[in-house]
């Protein structure tokens, strides 16, 4: 069974998905980060495929992608690094990037490589729902990969339902920048969005991302979805780190202190 399916069957709440950019801060860090995040208590790992034109990424992730490309990161090297990590851990792994990258690599070749090295799912924000449904859904499913689509506070209800129907990993709820920090809480608009989506009784599990950075924002997000995704805050911690293993353990423990308490 696909590892993403296994995770959501075994755990319904407080799922922590952590994103990092492959090849950052150093070219060879990818394997170590996957293994360390698994040991530290993350439930799922999202690996960014660095790209020269990252339209949907914020400044922090754009910067990490630029450094990774300067370091010499390529998709072939990323696949090698994932394959090495798979010898040590069975944590669900998702690749996040741009459909352009998949096309340049060759769609069939890319999907086969994902399956061979142990990738479980994909997030490709620039792949339109109808193009996926008509041209790629069968091909992606044939390689036992799960697909995740994004919704935002501005997404129309009909499109939310379409994204839910076509996703088979989880639904990615983009929170915008509204969950900004521990003290500010969330805006009325945000709360309305979370509650509105909750009431729609969608079929896929939901994870909230963008603006989740610490224990307070993680717990808030978990009150309205099955869990949350943390990206930029972890990238910032890695950028300042002198010991990425120690930093990773400390970061996960900061988000969920019970990891420390339970060993």
SSE layout and pairings?
Layout lengths: L2 H8 L4 E7 L7 H12 L3 E5 L10 H13 L3 H11 L7 E4 L2 H7 L1 H11 L3 E3 L5 H14 L3 E3 L1 E2 L5 H10 L4 E4 L13 H12 L6 E4 L5 H8 L4 E4 L1 H8 L4 H12 L2 H4 L2
Parallel strand pairs: 1-2, 1-9, 2-3, 3-4, 4-5, 6-7, 7-8, 8-9
Helix pairs in contact: 2-4, 2-12, 4-6, 5-6
Structure description:
- With 263 residues, this protein is an alpha/beta fold.
- Helix content is 49%, strand content 14%.
- It is built from 13 helices and 9 strands.
- The chain has a 9-stranded parallel beta sheet.
- Strand 6 (150-151), helix 8 and strand 7 (171-174) form a beta-alpha-beta unit.
- The longest helix has 14 residues, at 129-142.
- The radius of gyration is 17 Å and the shape is globular.
- 43% of the residues are buried.
- The model is unreliable at 178-184 (pLDDT under 50).
Summary, kept brief:
This protein is α/β, with parallel strands linked by helices. It is built from 13 helices and 9 strands.
């Amino acid at each position: 069974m696909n590892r993403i399916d296994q995770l959501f069957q075994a755990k319904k709440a407080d799922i922590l998905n952590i994103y990092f950019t492959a090849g950052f801060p150093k070219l060879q860090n990818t394997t170590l980060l996957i293994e360390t995040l698994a040991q530290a208590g993350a439930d799922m790992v999202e690996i960014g495929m660095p790209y020269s034109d990252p339209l949907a990424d914020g400044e922090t992730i754009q910067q990490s992608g630029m450094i990774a490309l300067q370091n010499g990161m390529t998709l072939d090297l990323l696949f090698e690094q994932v394959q090495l990590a798979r010898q040590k851990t069975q944590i669900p792994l998702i690749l996040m990037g741009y459909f352009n990258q998949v096309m340049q690599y060759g769609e069939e070749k890319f999907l086969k490589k994902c399956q061979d090295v142990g990738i479980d799912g994909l997030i490709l924000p620039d792949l339109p729902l109808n193009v996926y449904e008509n041209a790629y859904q069968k091909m992606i499913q044939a390689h036992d990969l799960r697909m995740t689509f994004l919704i935002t506070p501005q997404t129309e209800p009909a499109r939310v339902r379409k994204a839910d129907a076509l996703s088979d990993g989880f639904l990615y709820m983009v929170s915008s920048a509204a969950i900004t920090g521990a003290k500010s809480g969330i805006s009325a608009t945000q709360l309305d969005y979370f509650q509105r989506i909750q009431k729609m009784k969608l079929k896929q599990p939901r994870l909230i991302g963008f603006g989740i950075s610490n224990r307070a924002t993680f717990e808030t997000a978990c009150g309205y979805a099955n869990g949350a995704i943390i990206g930029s805050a972890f990238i910032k911690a890695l950028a300042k780190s002198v010991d990425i293993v120690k930093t990773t353990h400390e970061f996960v423990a900061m988000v969920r202190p019970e990891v420390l308490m339970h060993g």
